[in-house]
Design brief:
single chain, alpha/beta, FAD/NAD(P)-binding domain, 2 domains, 7-stranded mixed β-sheet, 6 helices, binds NADP nicotinamide-adenine-dinucleotide phosphate
Length: 307
C-alpha cells in the first residue's frame, strides 16, 4: 500500500524543516524526505552569525534545533533519494529509491550542490587535498598551507574558518573584487594569514601522485602562468540546483532553478518550491526559513480550497 500524506517536503534543510513545522502545526500529515541527515548545507557551516536569535551558532546545532521544531508537531522524517515525481492533478506520486508515496501537496526544498572547477587534478586528488567543505576537512590542514578558490560568501567565510587552523590561506579569485558581503571582506583583509591572488584562474591542481602540492594559475590580465604551493585546495565557486528529478514537470528555468510566485507556488498547482533551489536573489538560511513558512501555510490553504 502506498503511504499517503497531506504534504511531502523533499529536502530537510532550513526551508524544508520550516515548511514541515508550519504544515504539521496546521494539523496536516507531513513527511520530510532527505537523502542524508537533516540540516542540509547548514551542516557544512561552522559559525552561523546571521540567523536572528543567535549571536553565533554551529551549523549542526542550528540544524538540530530546527529538526526538533519541525518534528515537534508530528512531522515525520524518512531517508530516501527521490527519483521521480508524477503530477496526477489532485495528488502527486513521489518515488524514492526504496519507497513510493502519495501526497496532496509537494514542497521542493532540495537546495543546491557545489559546483566543480572542472580542471585537471580536481577528480584525481578528491579527498587527497581537494575539498569542498572546510568544516569537514579543515582539521586535516592544521598548520599547513591551503588555497581557497572563489570570491563569494562561501569562499571568504570558509577562508576565515580555515585561517584558525592553517598556517596560511591563499584565496585565488578570477577578478580583482570579491563578491562576498563587505563584513566578511573586511575581516578577511584584516586577517594576516589570508593572502589574495587576484585576476587569476586555477588551471590545474597538482600533486605528487598521492597528495596535493599546489595549483597552476593563469593571470587573466597578462596571461602569465605561475604556481601556488599548498597542501590543500578548497573550492567554493558557487552552486548548481538539485532539480534533476523535477525536470519532467516543466517547472525549472533554463539553468535548472525553480521559479515561483510570492506564495512559493510553481507552475504546477500543488507543487511549491522553497529555499536555495528557487530562482531568487538572496540564498540565506533566513530567506529559506521565510520561504518555508510561506509554503507551509499555503499548503494548508491549498488543501482547504481543494477539498
Ligand atoms: P556565489 O555567490 O555564486 O560565488 C561564487 C564565487 O565563485 C564567485 O566569486 C565567482 O566569481 C566564483 N566563480 C564562479 N565560477 C567560477 C569558476 N569557474 N572559476 C573560478 N571562480 C568561479 O557562491 P557561494 O559563495 O557558494 O554562495 C552561494 C549562495 O549562498 C550566495 O547567495 C551566498 O550569498 C550564500 N551564502 C551566504 C553566506 C552568509 O550569509 N554568511 C555564506 C555562504 C553562502 P565572480 O564573483 O567573478 O562571479
Amino acid at each position: 500500500m502506498m503511504k499517503k500524506y497531506d504534504v511531502i517536503v523533499i529536502g530537510a534543510g532550513p526551508g524544508g524543516m520550516t515548511s514541515a513545522l508550519y504544515a504539521s502545526r496546521a494539523n496536516l500529515s507531513v513527511l520530510m524526505i532527505d537523502r542524508g541527515i537533516y540540516g542540509g548545507q547548514m551542516n557544512n557551516t561552522a559559525d552561523i552569525e546571521n540567523y536572528p536569535g543567535f549571536k553565533s551558532i554551529l551549523g549542526p546545532d542550528l540544524s538540530k534545533k530546527m529538526y526538533e521544531s519541525a518534528t515537534g508537531f508530528g512531522a515525520e522524517y524518512a531517508y530516501g533519494t527521490v527519483q521521480a515525481v508524477e503530477d496526477k492533478g489532485s495528488f502527486k506520486i513521489v518515488r524514492t529509491d526504496n519507497d513510493e508515496y502519495e501526497t496532496s501537496v509537494l514542497i521542493i526544498g532540495t537546495g543546491s550542490q557545489y559546483r566543480k572547477l572542472g580542471v585537471p587534478g580536481e577528480e584525481e586528488y578528491g579527498g587527497r587535498g581537494v575539498s569542498y567543505c572546510a568544516v569537514c576537512d579543515g582539521a586535516f590542514f592544521r598548520n599547513k598551507e591551503v588555497i581557497v578558490v572563489g570570491g563569494g560568501d562561501s569562499a571568504i567565510q570558509e577562508s576565515l574558518y580555515l585561517s584558525n587552523l592553517a598556517s596560511k590561506v591563499t584565496v585565488i579569485h578570477r577578478r580583482d573584487q570579491l563578491r562576498a558581503q563587505k563584513v566578511l571582506q573586511d575581516r578577511a583583509f584584516a586577517d594576516d594569514k589570508i593572502n589574495f591572488v587576484w585576476n587569476s584562474n586555477v588551471t590545474e591542481i597538482t600533486g605528487d601522485g598521492n597528495k596535493v602540492n599546489g595549483v597552476k594559475v593563469l593571470n587573466t590580465k597578462d596571461n602569465s602562468e605561475s604556481t601556488v604551493d599548498a597542501n590543500g585546495v578548497f573550492i567554493y565557486v558557487g552552486n548548481t540546483p538539485m532539480t534533476d528529478p523535477f525536470k519532467s514537470l516543466g517547472i525549472t528555468d533554463e539553468k535548472g532553478w525553480i521559479p515561483t510566485n510570492e506564495r512559493m507556488e510553481t507552475k504546477v498547482p500543488g507543487i511549491f518550491a522553497i529555499g536555495d533551489v528557487r530562482a531568487k536573489e538572496l540564498r540565506q538560511i533566513a530567506t529559506a526559513v521565510g520561504d518555508g513558512g510561506i509554503a507551509g501555510q499555503n499548503a494548508f490553504e491549498y488543501i482547504q480550497s481543494n477539498n
